[in-house]
Amino acid sequence: MIPYLIKTAACSAIFLFAYLLLLEREKMHRFNRWYLVLSVLASFIIPLVSVPVSQPVFPALSETLNFNWQIPVTPATDPSIDAASNAARRTIPGWMLIYCIITGVLLLRMLRNLYLLSRACRSRQAIRYRDARLIVRQQHMSSFSFLNTIFISESDYDAETETKVLTHELAHVAQKHSLDILFIELVITFCWFNPLFLLYKKSIQANHEYLADEAVIARHPDPVSYQYLLLEKASMQNPLPLTSNFNFSDLKKRLVMITRQYNPWRALAKKLTTLPLLTVALISFGSGIAAVKTVANIPPFVQPADTTPGKPFRIIRAPFDLPVSSGTGISKEEFDEYNRIVAANTTKDAWGHETMEKISPADRARLETLYKQMNREQRSSTRVSFGKKIPPPDKLDITAAQMEKWKNPASYGVWIDNEKVDNSKLNDYKPADFSGYNESSLRYTEKMKKDVMERFHLKQMYKVQVDLMTNAYYQKILALSNAQPEHSMYYRFTHTRNGKSVEGYWLVRQ
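The structure corresponding to this sequence follows.
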């Protein structure tokens, strides 16, 4: 939750800064209205959006991902979780209590203001005027509107002609400005800890006044007299909250905006700047999911048998399952036997995650026999499954021209036999020394870029990853692949990333 709120605050700050810097002083008030409202919504949505990005999956880098590959433990599976611990877990944290109290007070205040406004709007003295309801008041106060009701003083109302003040308030009603104010007030009520939303409210209200002033000048084309009218009304008493009022306090900007000229080309250029701004926000604060780009004729391959302890294997995507038995499945005793064999061979890696690196031929054969007889429901609840054997990678030829371009560290990051090497290392090889390669164009967030550069002490980040297999490495993979049984054995793991449960499979060696 905390990372989400930080991203929300960062997004709202970027969008608001862009508005104040580029858009606020331009006479394009309708666009600005939608920009402000949608910016608030986007600040909440963007941190939840999953942006696909390409990320290299290396044994070394996978240590930094901090995946949790253990299946969540529930009270039904672990008796150590007792009622006392459950009660402790249900205790409301202190910060949550403070948040609820403050939010409750603000919500009550908002409801009270809505009640006062609704009671005032139900006045029997209302007059139907065009699409609005007019309530003429004897008090010498500033005119204001809420939803479709306009509160106007006797001095500003003329039954024969439409005064400038009335035109102003009719614009608020016709353009439904009250909905914007209710929306931002609701956001402030629940997100009071982010002061930027108060600035959003001020900008939204100011833009409403620009729109209403624009409507007045269009109907009464005398900007100078209207400016004097604004100065005359500036000292009047302010109305209730949640309303659109005639003498909104930011008077100086309103006076300047009335006579400002509209430049369509400059306005268009500034509108277009919002598109890259949205893209930057999505890439920087979106929920990035690493998507590995692989070449179709080079399938994932088995890690060599002499893998250094503590280094994880390459993660393999869910395999093709074996055909499901048409029978009723195995008995409860056989299913319990299956789980006992799995538990006996389950170990933990260097990070404490459950895994299964090796299994004896006898245990493997027994598991495969039972698995083939399981029904679909039984298979879905097991940690170990059997599937189609992974084929060995195709052998690919490399040209001298390719090796020459890969020597450029500004564009290419070179990996030989799953080890990151300096690009100059290619000078020690000839094209005939390699049996395969894979080029992957990378897109990455700034955090991913920083992690990779620090991990491998890079002065600049490359754009394309090149994975090369030497002849010896390829032969080792080929031998291991050919030595595998007819069906591959997989250990299923789950981990949580960005608040989502993700499933993957280890390839279990015999």
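The radius of gyration is 33 Å.
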